[in-house]
Structure formats: structure tokens, C-alpha cells
């Protein structure tokens, strides 16, 4: 069974590297103090460590915190590196991220060719 994080609520990605040794209190403090967001808002906050093959998700359901931890057996996450930034993700971007794709796909500029 795969958990669809976007079904829980708005998903925010904490860009850059986060120390995944932090638990619920440490991650909630990071959300509140560094990014001035409310960890009790019912939103999902995603954190990734340096190896990019695992992440944690912090979620408040109104009664308590959930801390989800996922480690990929094959492949890595395409995690944004711009430290000290949080981005709101669409449900499609969350799906892309979980499949290892970039949340902002880049389209290569190709020179237009004329065909005769």
C-alpha cells in the first residue's frame, strides 16, 4: 500500500539537507522557527538528509503528530538543494518527487529545425 501524502493536505518540501536524526519536536521547531510556519496547521512537511534515498514527513492530524519515514531501496529522490527554502507542492509534484523525478521538470531548449 502506498500512502499518498497529498491526500493528507498541502505538502511543503523543506529544500536542502536536514539532519534526519531529529524527531518530531526537532522538526516541528525547525518548521516554526526557521521558516515561520505552523507545524500544527495540518500541512505535511517533507525533510531529506544528505543521502537522498530517504525522507521524513511531519504531519499534525488535530490530535497528534505523525512522523513518517521512507527509505527507497532502489534510486534516490531528486531533492531541491536551495537551502533555507520551503516550497508548497502540488499533488502532481508530490507524485513526481516520490517517483524520483524533479518537482520542476526542465525542458531542454532545442534549436528549431526547418524541414523542407
From TrEMBL:
InterPro entries xrefs: Transposase_IS66_Orf2
In which domain of life is the source organism classified?
Bacteria
Q: Name one Pfam family in it.
A: TnpB_IS66
Q: What is this protein called?
A: Transposase
Amino acid at each position: 500500500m502506498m500512502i499518498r501524502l497529498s491526500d493528507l493536505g498541502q505538502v511543503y518540501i523543506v529544500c536542502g539537507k536536514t539532519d534526519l536524526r531529529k524527531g518530531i519536536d526537532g522538526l516541528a521547531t525547525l518548521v516554526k522557527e526557521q521558516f515561520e510556519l505552523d507545524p500544527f496547521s495540518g500541512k505535511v512537511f517533507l525533510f531529506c538528509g544528505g543521502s537522498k534515498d530517504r525522507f521524513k514527513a511531519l504531519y499534525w492530524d488535530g490530535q497528534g503528530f505523525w512522523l513518517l519515514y521512507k527509505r527507497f531501496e532502489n534510486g534516490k529522490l531528486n531533492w531541491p538543494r536551495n537551502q533555507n527554502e520551503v516550497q508548497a507542492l502540488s499533488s502532481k509534484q508530490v507524485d513526481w518527487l516520490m517517483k524520483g523525478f524533479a518537482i520542476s521538470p526542465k525542458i531542454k531548449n532545442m534549436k528549431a529545425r526547418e524541414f523542407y
